[in-house]
């Protein structure tokens, strides 16, 4: 680890113990030395990073406040737009594209003094659970480089787990922050839908996507979320009220909290026994810390995965239509616009992206809409209603994040349905728009990290972080 | 040809709203800028950019809804209409589908109520220019796309199939255009494409309630082409049905050059737009304050204004329509009418729809931009009414007033144009004319009507010469009678 947590790094930079320049150089050196075996990064804009660090050091020299993340190197998933720096979504179709603007989260991190040191690998357009669906090759899990880091934010999770940076940003449409966090042994948060602006996040499924942090500690995640969350006039779906700051409530404990272990998540298809045991152990730890703990049933989560795999591809089929070769990115010429368009998309998109565009196009087609997209939306409404019931007498819920620990590279790449099952415990929170996070909690027999998922209602981040802090403390 | 078939026509009018900025971003909404200068990540549909709804466009839509007596449901939603086209940056159009902002309105056209099914907000596309091959798409070497228009706010107003003739359809568009202009929602310039009309046409037996197979006609760029295209299409369908053939449901394009509608290939027809709710926008739920602001902004509408002016000023319906149809003219004349002293509003309207309108057309000025203020026109009308100016002199004065920006009274003074109405002065003039032409006087007294008329003109001409055209003609006529 290059110098500790984000909290520690920012504190030492703010105190002047270390310069932002030195911190960033150390991160860049670590990436140069060791990312060859991990493959977390697609682009490392070293010059821009050093310049940004220089500006932070100038502020400090002038006695100005450099911000709460002063000098903290961060890794950005490569579906977050960065002005002038390639943003590829790990797809050939965005070949050569440099956005003329930065995502709101990138601007907010920069304003808080953080230094983006690189753009990280992902499953193409965030579609996948292993970061193997990248046009630029897979990322490897730093805990065991024969295994996947999870996905789709596998690059950011691996960058944090490898110690290249203490903060990564990912996006979570069906578990794409939490599942790689779980597989890499780091903390990953999917905030409440609308808590963090999506402006500048290349959309996969607009009604499900949320940006969130990947960090080594719960406190760092709170620190980052406090910086990036909040209303944004550029995103119509961002929540209008400022969120309650999380850092001050981290130590509030759980004595007054009611915790429910979700039966259907613990018993979901393919959950490893040691993952299940970890959830139960976390529940015991929360009870020991004063929370009341019981079981709760949310039957509709069993249908959530099917609904998710109709809604997300449907939105994606529309969101990805714009990659047509006309304005930016790859163009493969044809005799007319339609042929150029078809050839460009055929050459530019990978197999999984094409599969989902086909699925989504079908789900929205005349004659099938009601049976597929319409039915999926009805399931989504049911999921929301049942979670609302569960939260009537619970503050937070508990379940596994990923059914399994990290699986070997290549293991599921030819079996999409097995891959899709990786998301079975995480998609319900995307469908409901609620908050959820993964907290590392021990390891399986092979020493691979296990994550426990803490779920909370919309805007329930304060109670979620209080519970997560206890789980983190109790982790073996 | 079957004589008892009647046309059934419904119109879809797309109108560009006169907002300062586009529907979902802050780019200027203006016509005629350099290509691809009014663009940003949002209206170019760049990855990661998100739409934010322009509240002013919503207000304009609500004004139109109020003017067309539409219901405005508590909320409406935006939807994505998905299809690939190079001038559509996202390859989907943000529109409204199942839940539009305005529903169930009505527009009265010459005493007939035409139902309005819905009015919905949507974004415009860019513009493609095919280069080479004489402008024909399939011969073009390449295409240039200008995205300045992409994201410009449109309101699509869909009528019920209540129209029964090309003339009535044209009347509907004219009436609607007047309403849109009156509420300030659009500059309604068909030639700049800020108002575009598509038509659905079918035929059915008179008296039948069922609708026949409809054809959609696109690409009508003027009121004239709307009328001509509908006339052509009605005859085409009539001929088909008369020979026992079927009308095929399809979209046909009006061709201005050969004045015919042409079917598109069925392959291009097979669109499935895969509408679904736009997840990047929240439901549109105008609050009461916005609704009230829109309602309050609806002024007197053209039909009501025409009826009021016709009744109050005793002018013809045609004059009332002319006053109201020319943007700003009715306001100008109403302002002038307040300044009238001896003239009547009817006199005023005659001047306004005659010489003044002629000058407006010639100068392409709006009435509000004329150098002659409304009370200046009133002054001119009064000068005629009180006998100071003859109509002929008044026309010269108005012309000078409009061109030079002078007040009529000032021109009369400068050019000493005031009509001579002094009876003793005119009597002296006539005495002299009569004295100088004893032969003509004698011929007049013995002559038939024809001779009298001719000689009367001669005496008046001499009298006018002597008064430099300023003798009061009525007075001169009476005094001449006394002397002959």
Question: Can you walk through the features of this model?
Answer:
The complex is a heterodimer of chains A (476) and B (484). Chain A is of the alpha/beta class and 476 residues long. Chain A has 3 domains: 6-245, Amidase signature (AS) enzymes, CATH 3.90.1300; 258-300 and 380-435 and 447-474, no CATH class; 305-371, no CATH class. In chain A, 40% of the residues lie in helices and 13% in strands. In chain A, helix 2 (20-38) runs antiparallel to helix 3 (46-61), helix 9 (273-288) crosses helix 16 (461-474) and helix 10 packs across helix 12 (351-364). The mean pLDDT of chain A is 97. With 484 residues, chain B is α+β, with helices and mostly antiparallel strands. In chain B, the strands form 3 sheets. In chain B, strands 4-5-8-1-9-10-11-12 form an 8-stranded mixed sheet. In chain B, strands 3-2-13 form a 3-stranded antiparallel sheet, with no helix packed on it. Chain B has a two-stranded antiparallel sheet with strand order 6-7. Chain B is elongated, with a radius of gyration of 30 Å. Chain B starts with a strand and ends with a helix. The mean pLDDT of chain B is 91. Chain A binds chain B through residues 79-81, 87, 89, 94, 97, 99-101, 103, 198-203, 205-207, 233-237, 314-315, 317-318, 321-324, 326-328, 336-338, 341, 361, 364-366, 369, 373, and chain B through 41, 44-53, 80, 82, 84, 86, 89-92, 138, 143, 145, 272, 274-276, 279-282.
Would you summarize the structure shown here?
The complex is a heterodimer of chains A (476) and B (484). Chain A has 476 residues and is α/β, with parallel strands linked by helices.
- Largest sheet: number of strands, sense, barrel closure of chain B: 8 strands, mixed
* Average pLDDT rating of chain B: 91
How many beta-strand elements of chain B? Answer: 13
Secondary structural class of chain A: alpha/beta
Mean pLDDT of chain A: 97
CATH superfamily of the largest domain in chain A: Amidase signature (AS) domain
Oligomer: heterodimer
Give the domain tally of chain B: 3
Report the CATH C-level class of the largest domain in chain A: Alpha Beta
Report strand % of chain A: 5-15%
Shape of chain A: globular
First-last Cα distance of chain B? 70 Å
Unreliable spans of chain B are none
Q: Major sheet of chain A: size, sense and barrel closure? A: 11 strands, mixed
Number of strands of chain A: 11
């Amino acid at each position: 680890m290059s110098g500790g947590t984000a909290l520690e790094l920012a504190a030492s930079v703010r105190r002047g113990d270390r310069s932002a320049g030195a911190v960033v150089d150390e991160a860049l050196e670590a990436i140069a030395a060791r990312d060859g075996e991990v493959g977390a990064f697609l682009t490392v804009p070293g010059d821009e990073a050093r310049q940004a660090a220089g500006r932070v050091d100038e502020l400090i020299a002038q006695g100005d406040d450099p911000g709460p993340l002063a000098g903290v190197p961060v890794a950005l998933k490569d579906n977050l737009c960065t002005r002038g720096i390639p943003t590829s979504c790990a797809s050939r179709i965005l070949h050569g594209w440099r956005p003329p603007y930065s995502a709101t989260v990138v601007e907010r991190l920069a304003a808080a003094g953080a230094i983006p040191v690189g753009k990280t690998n992902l499953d193409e357009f965030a579609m996948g659970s292993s970061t193997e669906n990248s046009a630029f090759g897979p990322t490897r899990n730093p805990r065991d480089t024969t295994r996947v880091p999870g996905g789709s934010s596998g690059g950011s999770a691996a960058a944090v787990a490898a110690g290249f940076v203490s903060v990564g940003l990912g996006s979570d449409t069906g578990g794409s922050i939490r599942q790689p966090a779980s597989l890499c042994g780091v903390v990953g948060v999917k905030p409440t839908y609308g808590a963090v602006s999506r402006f500048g996040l290349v959309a996969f499924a607009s009604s499900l996507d949320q940006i969130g942090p990947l960090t080594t500690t719960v406190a760092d995640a709170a620190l980052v979320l406090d910086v990036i969350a909040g209303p944004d006039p550029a995103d119509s779906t961002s929540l209008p009220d400022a969120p309650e700051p999380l850092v001050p409530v981290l130590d509030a404990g759980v004595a007054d909290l009611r915790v429910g272990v979700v039966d259907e998540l613990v018993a979901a298809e393919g959950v490893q026994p040691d993952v299940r045991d970890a959830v139960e152990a976390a529940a015991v730890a929360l009870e020991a810390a004063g929370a009341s703990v019981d079981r709760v049933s949310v039957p509709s989560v069993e249908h959530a995965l099917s609904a998710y795999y109709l809604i997300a591809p449907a939105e994606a089929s529309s969101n990805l239509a714009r990659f047509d070769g006309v304005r930016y990115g790859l163009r493969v010429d044809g005799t007319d616009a339609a042929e150029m368009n078809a050839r460009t998309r055929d050459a530019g998109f990978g197999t999984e992206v094409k599969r989902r565009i086909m699925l989504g196009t079908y789900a929205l087609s005349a004659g099938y809409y009601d049976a597929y997209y319409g039915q999926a939306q009805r399931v989504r409404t049911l999921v929301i209603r049942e979670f609302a019931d569960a939260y009537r007498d619970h503050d937070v819920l508990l379940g596994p994040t990923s059914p399994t620990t990290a699986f070997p590279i290549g293991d599921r790449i030819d079996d999409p349905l097995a891959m899709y099952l990786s998301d079975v415990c995480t998609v319900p929170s995307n469908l409901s728009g609620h908050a959820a996070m993964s907290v590392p909690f021990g390891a399986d027999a092979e020493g691979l990290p296990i994550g426990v998922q803490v779920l909370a209602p919309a805007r329930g981040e304060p109670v979620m972080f209080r519970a997560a802090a206890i789980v983190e403390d109790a982790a073996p | 040809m079957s004589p008892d078939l009647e046309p059934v026509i419904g119109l879809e009018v797309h109108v560009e709203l006169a907002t300062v900025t586009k529907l979902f971003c802050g780019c200027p909404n203006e016509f005629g800028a350099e290509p691809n200068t009014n663009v940003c990540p949002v209206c170019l549909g760049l990855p990661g950019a998100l739409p934010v709804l322009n509240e002013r466009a919503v207000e304009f839509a609500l004004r139109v809804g109020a003017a067309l007596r539409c219901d405005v449901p508590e909320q409406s939603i935006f939807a994505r209409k998905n299809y690939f086209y190079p001038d559509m940056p996202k390859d989907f159009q943000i529109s409204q589908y199942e839940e539009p902002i305005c529903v169930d309105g009505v527009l009265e056209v010459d005493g007939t109520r035409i139902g309005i099914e819905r009015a919905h907000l949507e974004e415009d596309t860019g513009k493609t220019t095919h280069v080479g091959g004489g402008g024909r798409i399939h011969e073009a070497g390449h295409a240039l796309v200008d995205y300045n228009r992409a994201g410009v706010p449109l309101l699509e107003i869909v009528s019920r199939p209540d129209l029964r003739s090309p003339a009535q359809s044209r009347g509907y568009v004219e009436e609607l255009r007047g309403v849109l202009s009156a509420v300030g929602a659009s500059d309604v310039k068909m030639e700049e494409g800020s108002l575009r009309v598509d038509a659905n046409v079918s035929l059915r037996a008179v008296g039948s309630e069922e609708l026949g197979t409809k054809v959609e006609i696109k690409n009508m760029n003027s009121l004239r082409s709307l009328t001509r295209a509908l006339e052509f299409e009605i005859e085409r369908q009539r001929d088909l049905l008369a020979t026992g053939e079927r009308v095929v449901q399809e979209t046909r394009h009006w061709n201005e050059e050969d004045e015919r509608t042409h079917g598109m290939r069925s392959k291009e027809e097979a669109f499935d737009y895969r509408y679904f709710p736009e997840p990047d926008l929240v439901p549109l739920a105008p609050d009461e304050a916005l609704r009230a602001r829109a309602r309050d902004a609806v002024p007197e509408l053209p039909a009501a204004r025409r009826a009021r002016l016709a009744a109050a000023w005793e002018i013809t319906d045609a004059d009332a329509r002319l006053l109201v149809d020319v943007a700003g003219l009715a306001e100008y004349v109403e302002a002038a009418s307040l300044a009238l002293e001896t003239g009547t509003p009817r006199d005023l309207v005659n001047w306004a729809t005659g010489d003044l309108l002629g000058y407006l057309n010639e100068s392409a000025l709006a009435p509000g931009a004329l150098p002659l203020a409304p009370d200046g026109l009133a002054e001119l009308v009064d000068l005629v009414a009180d006998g100071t100016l003859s109509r002929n002199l008044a026309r010269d004065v108005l012309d000078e007033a409009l061109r030079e920006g002078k007040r009529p009274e000032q021109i009369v003074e400068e050019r000493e144009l005031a009509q001579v109405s002094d009876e003793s002065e005119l009597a002296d003039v006539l005495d002299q004319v009569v004295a100088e032409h004893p032969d003509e006087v004698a011929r007049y007294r013995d002559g038939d009507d024809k001779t009298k008329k001719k000689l009367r003109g001669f005496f008046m001409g001499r009298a006018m010469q002597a008064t430099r055209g300023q003798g009061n003609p009525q007075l001169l006529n009476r005094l001449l009678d006394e002397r002959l």
